[in-house]
Design a protein that fits this description.
Layout (H helix, E strand, L loop, with lengths): L2 H8 L6 H6 L6 H9 L2 H13 L5 E5 L5 H9 L2 E5 L9 H10 L5 E4 L13 E7 L8 H11 E13 L4 H10 L3 H4 L7 H10 L2 E7 L5 H4 L4 H23 L6 H15 L12 E8 L1
Parallel strand pairs: 1-2, 1-4, 2-3, 4-5
Antiparallel strand pairs: 5-7, 6-7
Helix pairs in contact: 3-5, 7-10
Length: 288
């Protein structure tokens, strides 16, 4: 299947309804925009853009899919250049053109190209934004080099929700667990060192590496509340397990602490990101 065929297919399957909603894959394109604009992720995104590039006027949005971020930024008042290689009206540049008309926007331009082959002038953009696209790079160094080339000095590269792997075994696990890779075979991931080295070679200084549990940017559609509930549930399960083993001694805080430390060392802490297949990171980098 192609990526477009994959999205069209999962829209017809009830078991993928949650994914379609949370990944903004609805056939109703404006609905995707309104959901994204109202999300905690977008609120946090705007906050970080304004913190690191408060005077920015224009944004290059690379690998922007069906345009949820591009349209949201245009509605926010930025001059937006959207780059997406897929031409489709389902999940690609065609969808963005339709949304541009629907929202009557004159501050967005749409180009069909891969990130490695953009042809904009040097130092053209205040911000280069990349959401869930960097890990799809055919050539990671060239992908980031082009992003760096078109950034103005002092400009911001903001990459969001890219899959991180620790080694090839971890990558194999991620690909096996990904719900859509089996259909279109297009998923990929890199190590944190590969991402950061590519940025360094492109003349970018990494200001922040935002790990999986650090921000809603990465762990969405989970919420802080849900993560807290999961931790409490695991804690309760551990208490019950210890009680079954040692009875009333399980109420002793020191004994429970030792037991918890043992389980953490053997299975990982409840918030150990190694337990999350293809956990996502985000990066904030400044052009030197």
């Amino acid at each position: 299947m192609t990526w477009e065929e994959t999205i069209q297919y999962i829209r017809t399957k009830p078991e993928y309804a949650y994914l379609v909603e949370k990944a903004y894959f609805e056939a109703d394109l404006p609905l995707n925009i309104e959901r994204f604009k109202g999300s905690e992720e977008y609120v946090e995104t705007v906050k970080l853009l304004q913190k690191y590039q408060p005077q920015a006027k224009n944004i290059l949005d690379i690998g922007c899919g069906n345009g949820i971020s591009s349209i949201a930024f245009a509605l926010q008042g930025y001059q937006v250049t959207a780059v997406e290689p897929d031409p489709s009206s389902t999940i690609g540049a065609g969808a963005i053109r339709k949304l541009k008309e629907d929202y009557h926007l004159d501050n967005i331009e749409i180009f069909e190209a891969y990130a490695e082959d953009i042809h904009f002038d040097d130092e053209s953009f205040d911000i280069v934004y990349v959401r869930q696209a960097m890990h799809h790079a055919n050539d990671l160094d060239k992908f980031i080099a082009e992003a760096g080339r078109v950034l103005k000095k002092g400009g911001l590269l903001f990459t969001v929700r890219d899959h991180v792997i620790f080694d090839e075994k971890d990558k194999a696990w991620f690909l096996e667990m990904h719900p859509l890779h089996k259909f279109y075979g297009g998923e990929n991931a890199f190590t944190t060192e590969e991402y950061k080295n590519a940025m360094h070679k492109a003349g970018l200084k990494v200001e922040r590496e935002i790990k999986y549990y650090d921000s809603i940017l990465n762990y969405f559609p989970l919420t802080k509340q849900k993560i807290t509930e999961n931790i409490k549930q695991i804690d309760e399960q551990r208490r019950n397990s210890l009680k079954n083993k040692v009875g009333f001694l399980s109420t002793n805080s020191f004994i429970f602490s030792l037991y918890t430390s043992y389980l953490d060392s053997k299975y990982g802490e409840p918030t150990d990101e190694k337990l999350v297949a293809g956990r996502m990171y985000s990066y904030i980098a400044i052009k030197q």
